[in-house]
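hey so i finally got around to running the thing on that chain from the lab meeting. sorry it took forever, my laptop kept dying and i had to restart like 3 times. anyway pasting the input first so we r on the same page abt which one it is
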Amino acid sequence: MKSKSCKYFILGKRAEFTARLNFNSDWYSISFSVKSINISVKDFSFLESNSI
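ok and heres what got predicted. didnt touch it at all, straight out
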């Protein structure tokens, strides 16, 4: 079993944050939906797989 930790800091007043994590085999895709907000990601490592 592999455990991955994701740390994200959100700075702003009113903002809507939606994060979807899909874990599949060895890779996982992340979808972020942000509206008027500044996001600072620190220590964030993931595999990039672009498949349209």
